């Protein structure tokens, strides 16, 4: 495991308990997405990991070594993109920024230039190497920010709200870049409020509520467990008889009927073949199934409700 966080807690002087007893792992080659409402404790956690803030309690292990007072082994291998404009010098070109940020990381000009050129080429921005940052689009600026964070080829990349203010195309580019980096073995930890982006990009999810971790695990497991119940909408060509309805009800729960359209919940996947067999005797006008996404998962945990407003399914955190 690249990074292990154990029992992290932090309160501020004004009495705010920002995080409490957080434990999680950040593996290499995966994108871990930190989700939670404003004030949940995401930035505080990132700051502690980056040694910008001291925890009251807790331990951090990097490559299985406990970091005590010296975070250098972690910081040397970490690139950071914070949610602000302070990641770059806007009056300088990408190449000048690479040389500056490279020097901060102990790289000489030649190596910084070489690494910078490689990154620009990889992310299709070679033609902008000598354009001042001010003159680049917001999306390009964000890519250059990520390149600056990657200048010394770190194993770990931390990004706070990397898609904030970006248009769809730029979000897609950031997504492609982060997925490429993860496939090359970089461990990525990012915060985001954009759940559709998180759903596309996350391998792992950390869900934090009022400073406490309420879900930690793979996105696939999380969605799979959450989708044990299948939501199915069937439109028949004509209304069902009472008998037919009773048979349908013995297979799936009918949650609403609108003319010939039935909304069903199938809580047991074994009943799927029974349902399909039942449906083959009818002329169907439409059939839809809907999987719950991360937005429903977050709603369930954060607001305590699920799709139909009740709390009756989900996973235990
Ligand atoms: N320096 C500080 N002094 C006092 N309280 C703070 C300080 N920094 C953060 N907090 C409080 O700690 C809690 C967690 O804040 P944090 O910034 O970590 O949340 P967040 O999840 O990153 O929120 P956002 O999504 O808005 O960035 C909040 O209640 C916040 O007001």
Reading the helices and strands in chain order gives EEEHEEHEHHHEHEHEEHEHEEHEH
Name every ligand kind in the structure.
adenosine-5'-triphosphate
Radius of gyration: 24 Å
Q: Which architecture of the largest domain per CATH?
A: 3-Layer(aba) Sandwich
Strand order of the largest sheet: 6-7-8-3-9-10
Distance between the termini: 22 Å
Instruction: Tell me about the largest β-sheet.
Output: 6 strands, mixed
Residues in β-strands, percent: 25-35%
How many DSSP E strands? 14
Q: How many domain regions? A: 2
Q: What percent of residues adopt helix (DSSP H or I)? A: 25-40%
Helix count, DSSP H or I runs of 4 or more residues: 11
- Per the CATH scheme, the topology name of the largest domain is Rossmann fold
Q: Kindly state the mean pLDDT as a whole number?
A: 90
CATH superfamily of the largest domain: P-loop containing nucleotide triphosphate hydrolases
Shape: elongated
Structural class: alpha/beta
The level-1 CATH class of the largest domain: Alpha Beta
Stretches where pLDDT falls below 50 for ≥5 residues?
305-317
Write a concise synopsis of the structure shown.
The chain is 34% helix and 27% strand.
